[in-house]
């Protein structure tokens, strides 16, 4: 049994009778990168605010590091680094002073400021007032702040929001390296599956406050079906030939698409096509992307 | 307690690099000008005349307004940059944060009072007073004015914490301070009107012989202390339950 870092039971938050978060059971194991996915307004940020004690749950319990958040809030928060929604900063201070304002409260050595600025590659800009920073730089400063206390758990809400592609790449690589290098467990939220796919090991998909899927990325991809695509010299004739073999396909732009074919079926079709004098240019397997599955999940609710 | 001092030190860093210092000097400078222009007359301690004149503008208008401006100021950079989230996910209790913010406001008001004292000494020096400075009266006046500002500061801190707007808490504060000009004339209302207390507390006894000015300091302190406890507790309770 793996050690659970975060565990919520029936976590619920109601606003005027509407459930923003609805009986959520979240389980995150140690050393994991947990991707918290869902469309905008699904309840991701509300959940994260409850995990950080910024708001009180209407109902349900939260255990972090095996302790009750309500009872041991301060000692739990001491071990968490976080970035909630938009980056927080003091515009009139420079990057170093922004971190110093936090450092004075959490009491870590001063050298830590240079270290975290280096981690997020802001060392060169550290003496400029933060109000002149781009959104991406502010975001990186926010991540630096979250790392300042050497946390065991990092909670990042949409950390790549507003970053350019190279910034997204940097942050992603940084997040991926954290569990390996420092044994940090990461909870990262996003509304983009593509991002999660490259970062997270486990994902939880939330929709209208309810968890509709929680498993590894691998298991999610197993749920996907795949198509076989063929490009041949005489597609019309090939389509009829396939129909004789019991495979119904579609012809589109010269490409034949067959859903759900197993290996013997493919082998037989190719063999017949060759025997009948077709030239075969390409045989491809088109995996249904996780994006499609994700859309299916958030579109229809719990279908998996 | 250690957390409190840590937050305080963090707050000092934030405030020290802001423009709040410009605000602090305005009222003492204007009061000094008033003090320089005050005309002492025969038979009365000139220091008391100068003090009494300077106190009018400072105590009736500027000090109560500053008691609202400082809280708005130290909450502003938290509201605009999303600082509350970052501050309150640190291992700090909300009470400690509230207390630290309040201490900063009280400190800024104290600095303002000290600058006012400096202004008074400068005014006296320019006018060439030779009489000894009545330190007892001056100290009572400065401390009383500062203390009478604390309820206003507590109320404004509560309002500034809950409203993300910078102007709205100020509007509340100014609209409650302006009536001072009328209210201090009333013996019946002024002793119970918190915004009038700074000027009442700062006026040297017997200097202004009208309205509520002849009340002993002790009776003013009842109003001050009572309103302070109510406003401070309300602000603290509200902040502790607030959803960030």
Automatic annotation (TrEMBL), chain A:
Keywords: ATP-binding, Nucleotide-binding, Transport. The keyword Transcription does not apply. GO terms for molecular function: ATP binding; ATP hydrolysis activity. It comes from Fontibacillus panacisegetis. Belongs to the ABC transporter superfamily. InterPro entries: AAA+_ATPase, ABC_transporter-like_ATP-bd, ABC_transporter-like_CS, P-loop_NTPase. PROSITE patterns: ABC_TRANSPORTER_1, ABC_TRANSPORTER_2. SMART domains: AAA. This is ABC-2 type transport system ATP-binding protein. The keyword Metal-binding does not apply. Residues 6-233 form the ABC transporter domain.
Automatic annotation (TrEMBL), chain B:
This is ABC-2 type transport system permease protein. The keyword tRNA processing does not apply. The chain crosses the membrane at residues 20-38, 50-75, 96-126, 132-154, 166-184, 220-239. Coiled coil: none annotated. Keywords: Membrane, Transmembrane, Transmembrane helix. It comes from the Bacteria.
């Amino acid at each position: 049994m793996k050690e659970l870092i975060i565990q919520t039971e029936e976590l619920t938050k109601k606003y005027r009778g509407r459930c923003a978060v609805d009986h959520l059971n979240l389980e995150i194991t140690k050393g994991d990168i947990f991707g918290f996915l869902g469309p905008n307004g699904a309840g991701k940020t509300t959940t994260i605010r409850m995990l950080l004690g910024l708001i009180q749950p209407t109902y349900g319990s939260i255990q972090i590091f095996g302790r009750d958040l309500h009872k041991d809030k301060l000692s739990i928060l001491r071990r968490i680094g976080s970035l909630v929604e938009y980056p927080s900063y003091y515009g009139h201070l420079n990057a170093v002073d922004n971190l110093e304002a936090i450092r004075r409260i959490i009491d870590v050595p001063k050298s830590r400021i240079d270290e975290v600025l280096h981690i997020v590659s802001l060392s060169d800009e550290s003496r400029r007032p933060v109000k002149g920073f781009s959104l991406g730089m502010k975001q990186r400063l926010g991540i630096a702040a979250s790392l300042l206390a050497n946390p065991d758990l990092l909670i990042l809400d949409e950390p790549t929001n507003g970053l350019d592609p190279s910034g997204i790449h940097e942050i992603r690589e940084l997040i991926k390296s954290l569990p390996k290098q420092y044994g940090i467990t990461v909870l990262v939220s996003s509304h983009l599956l593509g991002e999660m796919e490259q970062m997270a090991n486990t994902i939880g998909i939330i929709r209208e406050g309810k968890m509709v899927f929680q498993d590894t990325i691998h298991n999610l991809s197993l749920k996907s079906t795949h198509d076989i695509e063929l490009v041949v010299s005489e597609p019309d004739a090939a389509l009829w030939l396939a129909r004789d073999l019991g495979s119904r396909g579609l012809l589109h732009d010269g490409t034949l698409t067959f859903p759900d074919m197993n290996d013997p079926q493919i082998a037989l079709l190719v063999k017949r096509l060759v025997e009948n004098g077709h030239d075969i240019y390409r045989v491809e397997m088109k995996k249904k992307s996780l994006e499609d599955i994700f859309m299916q999940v958030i579109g229809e609710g719990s279908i998996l | 307690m250690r957390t409190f001092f840590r937050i305080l030190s963090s707050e000092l860093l934030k405030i020290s690099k802001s423009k709040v210092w410009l605000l602090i000097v305005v009222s003492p400078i204007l009061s000094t000008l008033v003090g320089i222009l005050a005309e002492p007359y025969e038979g009365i301690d000139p220091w008391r005349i100068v003090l009494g004149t300077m106190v009018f503008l400072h105590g009736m208008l500027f000090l109560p307004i500053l008691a609202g401006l400082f809280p708005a100021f130290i909450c502003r950079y938290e509201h605009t940059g999303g600082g509350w989230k970052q501050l309150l996910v640190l291992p700090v209790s909300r009470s400690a944060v509230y207390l630290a913010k309040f201490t900063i406001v009280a400190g800024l008001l104290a600095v303002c009072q000290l600058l006012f004292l400096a202004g008074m000494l400068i005014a006296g020096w320019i006018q060439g007073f030779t009489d000894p400075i009545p330190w007892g009266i001056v100290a009572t006046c400065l401390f009383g004015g500062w203390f009478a500002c604390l309820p206003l500061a507590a109320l404004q801190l509560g309002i500034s914490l809950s409203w993300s707007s910078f102007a709205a808490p100020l509007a509340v504060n100014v609209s409650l301070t302006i009536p001072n000009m009328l209210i201090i004339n009333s013996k019946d209302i002024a002793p119970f009107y918190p915004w009038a207390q700074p000027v009442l507390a700062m006026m040297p006894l017997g200097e202004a012989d009208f309205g509520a000015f002849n009340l002993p300091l002790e009776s003013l302190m009842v109003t001050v202390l009572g309103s302070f406890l109510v406003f401070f507790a309300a602000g603290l309770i509200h902040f502790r339950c607030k959803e960030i």
